[in-house]
Write a structure and sequence with these properties.
- The protein contains 8 helices and 11 strands.
- The protein has helices spanning about 45-55, 75-80, 95-100, 150-155, 185-195, 225-235, 245, 255-265; strands at about 15-20, 60-65, 85-90, 110-115, 115-120, 125, 140-145, 165-170, 200-205, 210, 220-225.
- The strands form 2 sheets. A 9-stranded mixed beta sheet has the order 8-7-4-3-2-1-9-10-11. Strands 5-6 form a two-stranded antiparallel ribbon.
- Helix 1 runs parallel beside helix 2 (about 75-80).
- The longest helix has 11 residues, at about 45-55.
Length: about 270
């Protein structure tokens, strides 16, 4: 597998919700429970799913829930690494850094840490007792959600410690109960998102494909995890424009022009 760079974020990604168990209860999270359940991944189910995904270049994003709670996380990551087209990515609230610190040293693992719950006038509310990552070549990244308080904090405090290539800034999202209504993205953009959401989910608790990670709690369309359905998903033929897509206020990232043309050529985008 070639060396990974920041450009990995530009590849297509699929979330693997290994378990919805979490040691935290972030108010804007899509899927969590404080009940400790399903903490050992079904390796037969994982192996089949990876085999069917392996023809495609995909970031496999391990989360949930909190992936650091998974008892066989090493085995899961090693299984992904057997496939040259699949990039193991971990999104953790820092619990992986505590329980599986060697993951951060593995050059073939993209480690993203959602360490900050929110910013306040005089402090940063963290989810773990760690410092931010400095710029590094180990594929370790800070994930910072730009909540309204992030901008207020930045006005009065120095945040140069995270102003580098190993920090990924994410727009504040509509899952928060405190979000302000924004103007919806054009319907065409939402139809493009519906054809391959950012990102679809493999739900390991249900062993189903979910259409939209933003609707896991309230219910998105589910599909059986089969080779046929995965091929359809990766070729923009599985998902459709759903009722919840019409109401979604989640900011939609600008898609590359060639991808817009590729998705539009399927035809389902405009149905």
């Amino acid at each position: 597998m070639k060396d990974k760079t920041f450009e990995m974020f530009e590849t297509r990604a699929i979330d693997f919700y290994l378990s919805k168990s979490c040691n935290k209860s972030c108010h804007y999270c899509t899927a969590w429970t404080l009940e400790m359940r399903n903490l050992t991944v079904d390796m037969d189910f994982l192996s089949k799913t990876l085999k069917w995904l392996s023809p495609y270049v995909v970031r496999i994003q391990l989360l949930g829930g909190e992936p650091g709670l998974i008892k066989n996380l090493d085995e899961v990551v090693n299984e992904i690494k057997k496939h040259k087209n699949l990039i193991p990515t971990i999104l953790s609230n820092s619990f992986v850094r505590k329980r599986y610190p060697h993951m951060l040293e593995d050059p073939n693992v993209l480690y993203q840490e959602h360490l900050v719950l929110d910013f306040h006038e005089d402090r940063i509310e963290k989810l773990g007792n760690y410092d931010f990552f400095e710029e590094n070549d180990k594929n370790n990244y800070n994930i910072i959600i730009m909540t309204p308080n992030y901008f207020k904090y930045r006005e009065n405090h120095d945040l140069s410690i995270i102003d580098h290539r190993n920090t990924k800034l994410k727009k504040f999202n509509s899952r928060s109960p405190n979000f302000e209504d924004l103007e919806q993205a054009p319907e065409f953009d939402r139809r493009i998102c519906a054809a391959f959401p950012s990102v679809p989910v493999i739900d390991f608790e249900l062993q189903r494909i979910r259409h939209c990670s933003k609707k896991v709690i309230n219910g998105s369309r589910r599909y059986a995890v089969t080779e046929e359905n995965i091929d359809k998903m990766m070729n923009y033929e599985l998902f459709a424009f759903e009722e919840y897509c019409k109401k979604c206020f989640e900011p939609i990232d600008k898609r590359p022009e060639d991808r817009i043309l590729e998705i539009a050529s399927v035809g389902k985008v405009l149905i």
